[in-house]
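quick one, 206 residues, struct below
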Amino acid sequence: MLNRVEIKCNISSSLTPIANIVHVFGKVYIEGASKSVIITKKKQQHAQLVLPRALSVPVETIQVELQQTIENKSHVRGCCILPDSRFILAYPDLNKVEIVKEDRSVDFSLNITAAYGVAYNDADNTLAISSWWFDGVGDQITIIDLTQRKVTKNLSLWRQTTGIATTNKTLLYYKTNKAIQTIDLSSKLTSEIVPNNKESFVDVAI
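---
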């Protein structure tokens, strides 16, 4: 903030006779000058950001190593691995979904009609299970809460489904011999992504 200086002059009444005799005591000059403010800024210190160098590896050099083998009880159609290394196995002919620990022991299982495809949603720790088996068995998508270890929702689609994927509150699935569709789990609204698809089996991914 700039300080303002105010100058005042009061003439004593005892000097009035002198003021009447001397008409000019001197001259006062006022000069204007622009204000000058200098702002200094210290040089900022910049830290050097070091990014890891990504090494490109040719696909031909990638080697696959068998780490574990799990013997199936029947026909496994859908499977996935959870973040905690548990396995999800879907048996459509047994109408069952099994959650298997890393040591191959069964953690728990649930009865799901014609359980076929499996999709894990890390947003709310749930599974979405599509349904398909011979003779038209299965016409729903089942939502399993892994925390509560139970079925929390059944979505009736009036047609079999095979491939399935999920992201947040949206499911992407293949409606057999019809179309690839999405459904909003909150509003239950569906929309077709790829209409008029007459393939028997289609896998989808997000």
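The first strand starts at residue 78 and ends at 81.
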